[in-house]
Amino acid sequence: MGRDSIGSTTPTRRDCLKYTGTAVGCGLLAGCTSTGSSQSAEADDDSSYSVTIEPTGEVTFNSVPETWVAENASWADMGVALGMDKPSAVVLTDEYRTWHYDDIPGLSTSKDDMVSLWQDGVDNELFIELDAGVHFIDPNYMINLIPNWEESDVEEVSEQVAPFCGNTSFSTYPWHEDYPYYDLYEATEKVAEVFQRTDRYEALEDLHSEFLDRVQQRLPPESERPEIALLSPASREPEKFYLYRLGNRTAYKHWHDLGISDALDDTDIPSFTSDRGTIDYEPLLEYDPEILMFYTDKHWTRSDFQDTFHTFLEDHSAASRLTAVQNGDVYPAGGMYQGPIINLSKTERAAKQLFPDEFSRDEQLYDRQRIADIRSGDI
Length: 379
Known about the structure:
Rossmann fold, alpha/beta, 379 residues, globular
């Protein structure tokens, strides 16, 4: 969706939102965190309240935001899981895999009204046009990863529109020295505090804990759980791959919850997130992972994935020698990002892919209606 579809600029929310910590200044610099209050949510009067989200620090809201922007699908899914409408914008809408909402009653998968912030760069005027009540985006992300953005641009949007108060918990970056990471549910709790929906957060956390307990009780012993290589194919007929190592960030939560380990753990091959490099079939043949999981550019059905990737690999002179290809153990891994709902969906799918003897393909491992109830406030 182009910027012209957003509409004209409306009055800003500067009167409704303000910074109270050290967000402007040290808190915006890479590796530097706020010295704001360590208290997570603090009411200042009958209507205003404060939330601390590192690395920004403490942010005060005079009213609950009604519209919002998320950096990626992780933060978008957190708000949606709490019953909010989808965000007005994310950096890249294509990376928000809403197909995970297919079978949640009352939850649409549509992104028709959502704006991609990235349009050959990110224009700060777009933030002004969107006029959101909060931006769940780490200001460091904007300064370090978005071309031509400087601290002054973050300050301008923060003052004219609303604060940047996200956390890049889903991955690691070179500028993450001493970075204050949140895990998935710690970040979700922060979103819940901003939207004043902590009761729904607590219900979601209980749902996730119960789900995980049931799934983990059915898993085979740790010694019998597989190792995987997590790759992103560089094309539909890949000759090289971007390799992701199973780090401890939220992007890999479901793998760790299932006790899955990294097939290349004992190698010195770096992750794509650290050096943006690629690998070809030579190291894959050397280490021969038993299972290959592919991050892909879209949602692939099982049959389409097989017809596209597995058929190519079977006919490839090098790829066909891989144990995973010979055994048919090449699977779609979806995308990197996940909040509470997407995490449940990704964990369920991974359990069925990797443990077919324990979990049947048609089995539902979590209660879709319960998610709908929590979203609607029926706790």
